[in-house]
Give the backbone structure.
Amino acid sequence: MELKTEEPKNWTNQRIKQEQIDKYLSNGNNFIDPENINALIEKTKNPDKATILNILEKSMRIQTLSALDAACLLNVTDPDLWDLMRQTALKVKKKVYDNRIVTFAPLYLGNACVNNCLYCAFRKDNHTNQRKILSLSEIEKEVRVLCGQIGHKRLVVVYGEHPITDIDYMVESVKTIYGIREKTAKGIGQIRRVNVNAAPLSIEELKRLHEVGIGTYQVFQETYHPQTYKNVHPENTLKSNYNWRLYAMHRAMEAGIDDVGLGVLFGLYDWKFEIMGLLSHNRELEKKFGVGAHTISFPRIEPADNTPLTENLEYKVLDEDFKKIITVLRLAVPHTGLIITARENAEIRKQAIALGITQTDASTKIAIGSYSDKTENQQGQRQQFILGDTRSLEELINEYIQMGYITSFCTAGYRCGRTGECIMDMLRSGKEGKFCKLNAVLTFQEWVDDFATEQTRTKAEEIIAKEIQEIKQTLPDIFEQFMDYYNRVKNGERDLYF
Ligand code: SAM
Ligand code: SF4
């Protein structure tokens, strides 16, 4: 595939399909009602203990909370009640996800962008940012390192919004990634799930992404507050269209992609308002399509090269509030995956795991091309922001083992049709947990055999032995087949799953 070198005429003007916004509006309005959100936050000030206990029971029953319930939780001020909420959040997570933590790596494919988001180093007017788009052979080099040397099986690929990295490039890059096989110590390394973080696309374009088998499609709204959205996304840019972005997931669902990822960029506006907006979005998807977000992300704005907005934030989210955000989300959408990335430092990431996080990245590099090019400057002018946690996958795995967690590389769900509404029902009822546990052990064993140092192997095998005992006791019917798969994995077979 030839990379496009120049912007086709009128590319930007033709991007937004107004009819693919209008069809979802109700009497010309979208589903975010700032006045109603503010009124709910106001009305639920100082909730009493009995109300909160009642809400926590609903979370323990793995129910999505109402807007009113979520607002009550956000308004708790009593430190003892927050303690109880944190403990309940962890119980909810254990009930749905047990002791598994899913791991992935981000792969930035290009940093050219036609937008001018004031918080992002990739914005068009940031002339100190060095632009680079990976060619398909450069992508291949990156992926060989990720799946052949580090041991990742899941990626999220990230694109700026630009004609050079348009839908043709996206499709070809995803196909390239899925096609790569790399010999490892005992088997074959391969990326089995490619999630996509990209600009809003049209239904026709999303169908093409669905056809190449992407996992989750993520678009973060950044801020649900319309005026703030306007302030940070200059007029006459594609991204300034709030509704085109807001309905990106509606279009994805219509195109057949039912694993979608929502997110807020925290630090742009009041965090309580943003959570209420995010939860409205989730409820809207549940109402219209029977399934809400597969994952939710909540990046905080990090310093970025030559990007003054990131250094002077009126709504900067402090660590204590950040932990409250995670706690409330875990309680409000008990079965939804929660992602924390290496934007955050190691200590916060560790604390966040105990509040309900289910997915983290590891060995993260975000300078374009820097997995394979070790000279690429991580602090430099080819990345979007500065990372907080640069630990390797092996270091993270060791930390998780110490905490009693097993690292899962499972990608079975979407390949067996366990996506969207189906997987959410299974998570609610605890059925998915059964498959996940088996697949977590199988994929973790793959990683241990292919990539672990001796020291890590010993510790990892202790936790695997414990998991196998648990499987024997809790899933006797399937144990024999599981052990057959397990022994085959030990002998070098790869990608066996339930
Ligand atoms: N260009 C696409 C878009 O804007 O949707 C997708 C890729 S963008 C590189 C991915 C996300 O990075 C954005 O949605 C935003 O939330 C986040 N981001 C941008 N600047 C950031 C910063 N300074 N610190 C932390 N996250 C940032
Ligand atoms: Fe471009 Fe996305 Fe950065 Fe905005 S956040 S400037 S759209 S890469």
Remarks:
- Residues 119-120, 158, 160-161, 197-199, 219-220, 222, 265, 299, 301-302, 304, 310, 343, 384-385 surround S-adenosylmethionine (ligand 1) (CB under 6 Å).
- The chain has a mean pLDDT of 93.
